[in-house]
Amino acid sequence: xxxxxxxxxxxxxxxxxxxxxxxxxxxxxxxxxxxxxxxxxxxxxxxxxxxxxxxxxxxxxxxxxxxxxxxxxxxxxxxxxxxxxxxxxxxxxxxxxxxxxxxxxxxxxxxxxxxxxxxxxxxxxxxxxxxxxxxxxxxxxxxxxxxxxxxxxxxxxxxxxxxxxxxxxxxxxxxxxxxxxxxxxxxxxxxxxxxxxxxxxxxxxxxxxxxxxxxxxxxxxxxxxxxxxxxxxxxxxxxxxxxxxxxxxxxxxxxxxxxxxxxxxxxxxxxxxxxxxxxxxxxxxxxxxxxxxxxxxxxxxxxxxxxxxxxxxxxxxxxxxxxxxxxxxxxx
Length: 332
Fold this sequence. Notes:
The chain contains 8 helices and 11 strands. The protein is α+β, with helices and mostly antiparallel strands and 332 residues long. The strands form 2 sheets. The protein has a 6-stranded antiparallel sheet with strand order 1-2-11-10-7-8. Strand 5 and strand 6 form a beta hairpin.
């Protein structure tokens, strides 16, 4: 079995049939008896277009280390104060096939004293062997750093200091992972490089949410309004030929300037923070992947499992890890 991958460009030599869902006309939720549930809780992925070949995922290979433990999929979701969130990170089909670990990660926390939501999403750079450790280190450190900052306006957050501090934490973590005698930024980049995008939200005075966000690397942020996906931050830069570039610059390399962006999330809208495993197949949001996520997220809050199931969709050539955090203004 081979993959037609955006990275290796192999042509598949076989494929297995899988259940398909009409993403433009999803089945409405209805009350069902327990005996009818298996038809809704399918073990098959949602297929968008041509599917990825079906196979049994491999365990993470020993060359990546047995510790820390790395789950194939991580799911979260809850409501607190003015926020409702759903979050998932799934190992891509290529990594499931070749035994590599999930290199994406996320962390979400709420600062109860300030009614503030903090989200961090990271995508380990593929060329870095231990980037799965880098992404986890980055999101956990960044959310803790943001939560521990003194009370201040969203616009006054020291974003550049955040990314510098996270870069240093990655450098120290690399020294431990690689058993180096001292921290070395160059070796940290080779081993643990990762993107990082952070969002801080609080309730807006006129309803909805105020959000300020910043990032290093190509993970993205979108505002889902109706069925439209409005890009807010990130995404891959275009090359001179008009094609999307696959080059990624991540931590511990920190740009000279980090420009935060502020956005208002109106009631009925959804703020999305995701890695390129979600952003690349989404594109402009006008295709089948956009239709799928508009049907799942717009005007409703899915269950945690429904959210993760949608994110784990099968589409040929799009086999990267996927991480997505969705934030809704909560109606009181």
